[in-house]
Amino acid sequence: MKKENWLVIIAGVLVGVAALVLTKLGNPANMGFCIACFERDIAGAVGLHSAAKVQYVRPEIIGLVLGAFIMALAGKEFRPQAGSSPATRFVLGAFVMIGALVFLGCPLRMVLRMGGGDLNALVGLAGFVIGIVIGILFLKRGFSLKRSYPAKLVEGTTLPVVMFVLLVLVLAVPAIFHASEAGPGSMHAPAIVALLIALVVGALAQKSRLCMVGGIRDSILVKDNHLLHGFIAIFLTVLIGNLVQGSFKLGFDLQPIAHSSHLWNLLGMVLVGWGSVLLGGCPLRQLILAGSGNGDSAVTVFGMIVGAAFAHNFALAGNPDSTNDAGELVVGGIANAGKVAVVIGFVVLLAISLLNSRKEATKA
Q: For this UniProt entry, which segments traverse the membrane (predicted)?
């Protein structure tokens, strides 16, 4: 096996171990890492939304960006660049986030949920693959957000600097941030431990180019399974870890912070897969690219954070399954506003896909 394949496998195994450790230390079940959920929590912590149960400055996000930044500098791969349709990327980032919060997790959390026995995540995987296939169809039509260009240092360091300042503020004046007293936002591993683990994961993800959407996209588009190995390694590591710990729970109903409204699990992840292909990487990859100097990915991350704020300010996000007073299952899902948002997302992604594809003049 090629050296590059071993690198992405090792990165996948360590990401899986890190997720298991963070969950054991206090993060919500099946949520050792979730880019969408953690960016949503940060959006709440800085006051962009008022959902009291999901507010916390997640050190994992800070660590991922700074870890990628340090590794890119050390490997002489830090290259400030920008200018590839930033406004479009902002909008795509927002809708990818809305789709993820309809499903209640990013592609990384989807894999972690699968490793915990959550069959709803398999429905999400089906939607994710469908979305990637749709994106690939437009790539074959010549879809492009155009090239990026070398930029000044300040452009490439925007997100790392923002994350570093956020870290300093959290350590120096934590009282200025909102923090959940109940719900997922109140469940977290010790901050310093989470930060250190995320620094390592960010560095590994930068070096290995780990990407959830990239693995499936490349496997279908160019028959290259290189990145797919990392995807599989995360799943197998988490699966084995949950089986060993006795925390594996197979089924659809009452999975941790998940709902069994199958249609909207599927459609939410179609939106995520399609949007991520257009962006050139999953939410995790966008953080890593931004840490490596990509200003366009930094804009995408800001779009995701704003999308998370919209999702919770306008009740677009999914609601987990629960039980009523009689102990009967109450299936969660999304409100009508969330359904409308998903449909609007498909319309927006279709418009972006068509308007940024080469005309039929390639008909020849």
A: 61-78, 90-110, 122-139, 159-179, 185-205, 226-244, 264-284, 296-317, 329-355
